[in-house]
Amino acid sequence: MIFIFGGAYQGKLDFAKREYGLMNEDVFPCTESGEIDFNKKCVCNIEQFTLWCVKNKKDAVDFFSLHKSEWENSVLICRDIFCGVVPIDADLRAWREMTGLLCAYLSQQAQSVYRIFCGLEQKLK
Predict the structure, then answer these.
(1) Which of 28, 32, 40, 125 has an alpha carbon within 20 to 30 A of 48's alpha carbon?
(2) CA-CA distances (angstroms) from residue 31 to 12, 84, 117?
(3) What is the pTM of this model?
(4) pLDDT tens track for 3-22
(5) Would you say 119 and 12 are in contact if contact means Cβ atoms under 8 Å apart?
(6) Residue 91's domain spans which residues?
């Protein structure tokens, strides 16, 4: 699995498309529905899935752990929401924490990890 993370509008998906030859139809964008289609080569906006998990009292790390065989050959993309100002709202703090925990788990499982900043990739692993 390839794991890519970075701030909003930094070029994460563009990098993944360019680097791994992905087309729009290869990408599943997560929403707050709680659904993920691991049949796609790439899953992006994973932070939206973690928001759904917080709202529905689910553990995102447990979910990904249970479905590892479905995503182990995928490109996974998550927006970095765990840096910067800590939110006052308890749910938003929980969302930030769960996203950070999931990113740490995915980074450990990944063959390669990239951080994208200003459209530039930094290979961390």
Answers:
(1) 125
(2) 17, 23, 23
(3) 0.94
(4) 999 999 999 999 999 999 99
(5) no
(6) 2-123
